[in-house]
């Protein structure tokens, strides 16, 4: 016969275990704020205000967002701003009116988003900056998921320093004027050159708007202005580097040999160029952010906090590993 104390003890243990099991959240479900139903991926509604489709990199990001949403069963409202800030702002207002649970946005530039982000905050909708950030007070966004652009610029400068003589003339193709990655990649690069490669001279630096056509056009003008003087190109993204490669070839020179090419992103096309000996180094910037994005979105919809900066893991790729890496590239 069990003693009464033992029976009572077993009952207490049983009730404690039961309540712990009831509190534990299964995978894909997180806690809900008081008075709200717990959201799952299947009931989550997310608005995503994409910048556009200006590069293989951005297409890779869009694909990652759409595929992850479909896999998880998230209701995704996707909008393409065609490179225009006013369209991104309109999309945000539409998402607020639709009462989505969470909004994701890579702000095309860093300024001009404060008012609409305040509107999202007032409506109780958390905003995730993804791949780019706007310059706004910290209470206007929940988290930034993306890269350390300053570090990417610094790594590009270190790599370029290995490609050219100590005294070299180079040109720089900058990203979209006012865009976070353009500002930070320039700073990281300039600081490293000033600190450790004082004799590398940046002949000129101009925006190629993060796209191939503009990158090519700017490179054509550099080649005309500085004939025989350019030893390397630093491009803030691969797409502009691909444009520069075309311009250099059309000028009768060998990209990757006569003029070294260092860029950022890690697109499939730049790996092909490296395999062909036409580009030298790419510093990776990962656009495959779908899984991290929806994980954070679900937590935020359920009132949980997430880290203010969720960083992506990235590598540096040079010509010697390009052929082995190429089949693995997905964007
Ligand atoms: O925000 C990420 C950057 O923006 C990518 O490097 C570039 O390709 C895109 O336009």
Structure commentary:
The chain has 331 residues and is of the alpha/beta class. Helices cover 44% and strands 18% of the residues. The chain contains eleven helices and twelve strands. The strands form two sheets. Strands 2-1-3-4-5-11 form a six-stranded parallel β-sheet, with helices on both faces. α2 (56-72) crosses α10, α5 (149-163) packs across α6 and α7 packs across α8. The longest helix has 20 residues, at 4-23. The termini are far apart. Bound molecules: alpha-L-arabinofuranose. Alpha-L-arabinofuranose (AHR) binds next to α2 and β9.
Brief rundown of the structure:
The protein is α/β, with parallel strands linked by helices. It contains eleven helices and twelve strands. The longest helix has 20 residues.
Question: Key terms for this structure?
Answer:
6-stranded parallel sheet, single chain, alpha/beta, Rossmann fold, 331 residues, binds alpha-L-arabinofuranose, 12 strands, 2 domains
By helix and strand content, what is the structural category?
alpha/beta
Unique bound compounds: alpha-L-arabinofuranose
- Report the average pLDDT across residues: 92
Strand order within the widest beta sheet: 2-1-3-4-5-11
Largest sheet: 6 strands, parallel
CATH architecture verdict of the largest domain: 3-Layer(aba) Sandwich
Q: Return Rg in Å.
A: 24 Å
What is the fold named in CATH at topology level of the largest domain? Rossmann fold
Helix fraction bin: 40-55%
Query: How would you describe the shape?
Result: elongated
The CATH homologous superfamily of the largest domain: Response regulator
């Amino acid at each position: 016969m069990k003693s009464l104390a033992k029976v009572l003890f077993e009952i207490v243990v049983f009730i404690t275990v039961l309540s712990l099991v009831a509190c534990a959240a299964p995978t894909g479900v997180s806690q809900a704020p008081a008075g709200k139903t717990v959201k799952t991926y299947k009931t989550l509604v997310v608005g995503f205000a994409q910048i556009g489709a200006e590069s293989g990199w951005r297409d890779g990001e869009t694909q990652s967002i759409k595929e992850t949403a479909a896999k998880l069963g998230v209701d995704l409202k996707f909008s393409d701003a065609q490179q225009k800030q006013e369209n991104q702002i309109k999309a945000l207002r539409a998402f607020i009116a639709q009462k989505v649970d969470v909004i994701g946005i890579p702000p095309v530039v860093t300024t001009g988003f404060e008012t609409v982000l305040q509107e999202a905050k007032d409506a109780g909708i958390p905003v995730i900056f993804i791949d780019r950030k706007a310059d706004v007070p910290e209470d206007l966004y929940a988290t930034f998921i993306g890269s350390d652009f300053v570090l990417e610029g610094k790594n590009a400068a270190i790599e370029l320093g290995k490609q050219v003589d100590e005294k070299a003339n180079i040109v720089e193709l900058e990203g979209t004027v006012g865009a976070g990655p353009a500002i930070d990649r320039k700073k990281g690069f300039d600081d490293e050159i000033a600190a450790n490669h004082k004799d590398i001279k940046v002949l000129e630096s101009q925006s190629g708007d993060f796209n191939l056509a503009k990158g090519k056009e700017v490179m054509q003008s550099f080649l005309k202005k500085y004939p025989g003087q350019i030893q390397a190109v630093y491009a803030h993204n691969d797409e502009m580097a691909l444009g520069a490669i075309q311009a250099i070839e059309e000028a009768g020179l060998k990209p990757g040999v006569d003029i070294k090419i260092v860029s950022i992103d890690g697109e499939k096309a730049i790996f092909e160029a490296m395999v062909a000996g036409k580009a030298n180094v790419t510093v990776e910037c990962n656009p495959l952010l779908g899984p991290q994005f929806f994980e954070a979105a679900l937590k935020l919809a359920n009132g949980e906090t997430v880290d203010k900066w969720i960083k992506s893991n990235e590598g540096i790729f040079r010509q010697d590993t390009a052929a082995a890496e190429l089949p693995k590239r997905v964007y």
